[in-house]
Amino acid sequence: MYGLSKTALDNLAFLVGKEICQVAIGPLDVQFNWGDGGISVWSRFAYVPNGMSPILWNGEDPEAAAKTVRLLKAVISSIECSQTLKLTFSNGDQLEIFEDERYESFSIQNGRSPTTIV
Fold first, then answer.
1. Within a 13 Å sphere around the CA of 106, how many CA atoms are in the beta-carbon half?
2. Cβ of 58: how many Cβ atoms within 10 Å?
3. Do 69 and 25 touch, CB atoms closer than 8 A?
4. 20 to 30 Å CA-CA from 50: which of 26, 57, 66, 70?
């Protein structure tokens, strides 16, 4: 794993305040979109609905990914970066995106250009 640096946290500060307006589930990815961008995940994530058990998505299970529709209209309230990217939302839910050791794990789009690819 590469790990996300303190610089990554500073560069991703724009995520705070973004409202999820679309959750798109493909055969090998899940996208969490807002008005002018979004996060595409190709690896794995843990989704923790407020007060519930974690739901793990391993890159293949669309039913597990479908549970993330609770994030619609939720606003990103905080971010943490370490070995993962952890987002906390206004409804208390959390999304932790894990890195893959060999492949790109996720990308973040802000406006028309990619901000980061991990």
1. 25
2. 11
3. no
4. 26
CB 102 within 8 A of CB 80: no
Q: Where are the alpha helices (DSSP H) in the chain?
A: 6-11, 62-66
Residues 33-80: pLDDT tens digits? 999 999 999 989 999 999 999 999 998 889 999 999 999 999 999 999
Residue 8: strand, helix, or coil? helix
Half-sphere exposure of 56 (CA within 13 A, CB side): 2
Read off the pTM: 0.88
| Burial of 32 (C-beta count, 10 Å sphere; 0-12/13-18/19+) | buried
Span 83-100, pLDDT tens digits: 889 999 999 999 999 988
